[in-house]
Write a structure and sequence with these properties.
The strands form 2 sheets. A 5-stranded antiparallel sheet has the order 2-1-4-6-5. Strands 3, 7, 8 and 9 form a 4-stranded antiparallel sheet that branches. The protein is about 25% helix and about 35% strand. The chain is α+β, with helices and mostly antiparallel strands. Helix 1 packs across helix 3 and helix 2 runs parallel beside helix 3.
């Protein structure tokens, strides 16, 4: 039941190989979650000179949180928070529709899969997304987003590369659902 589609201006629907998108998203999520620990550069054992390759500390990742009366509303809010890092959502017109279906029993992994699939589809289609919807039926998730092609009217913010497993949490907080994760920018 996996599938991804892009509909341009309400006309033709183009199928996207959902398995490839999902596998790419899973690999990206896994790679981002397993970043090497930041360490000081080591000295070469042969000439006592610092190595050419090294790591440094940086604060480039951003934590996103979504809250809502339902689990799906919280996921939609995380998508809005994620895409708002990239542009002003109020300026995005709903001209192009992307649709997503996937199966996932773990709600935390479903959040990462939802965000990474949206990011992949938006990047592949060259669109800024601004409106999001999601429905769940057991382990099956069906959703999508609307937006438009990037243009001069959109101020580009920081590019979001993907949702990670870092600080991943989906739970009830009082009467609301709260979903959160760290996105790599």
């Amino acid at each position: 039941m996996n599938g991804c589609w892009i509909t341009c201006s309400g006309s033709r629907t183009h199928a996207i190989d959902a398995t490839s998108v999902i596998l790419c998203c899973a690999a990206l999520s896994f790679a981002l979650a397993r970043k090497p620990a930041m360490t000081r550069p080591s000295k070469s054992t042969t000439d006592n000179v610092e190595r050419a390759d090294a790591y440094f500390e940086h604060g480039a990742d951003i934590g996103v949180i979504g809250r809502g009366p339902t689990l799906e509303a919280a996921f939609e809010a995380v998508a809005a928070a994620t895409f708002a890092i990239q542009t002003d959502l109020a300026k995005v017109r709903p001209l192009i529709t992307v649709q997503v279906q996937f199966e996932e029993s773990d709600v935390e992994l479903a959040l990462v899969r939802w965000i990474n699939t949206l990011l992949s589809l938006a990047r592949c289609a060259g669109v800024a997304l601004g409106k999001f919807w999601l429905r769940r039926d057991g382990n099956f998730w069906i959703g999508g987003a609307r937006g438009e092609r990037w243009n001069a009217g959109h101020e580009r913010g920081t590019e979001v590369k993907g949702a990670t497993l870092t600080a991943l949490s989906v739970c009830r907080v009082g009467s609301l659902w709260e979903a959160r994760c760290v996105v790599d920018v």
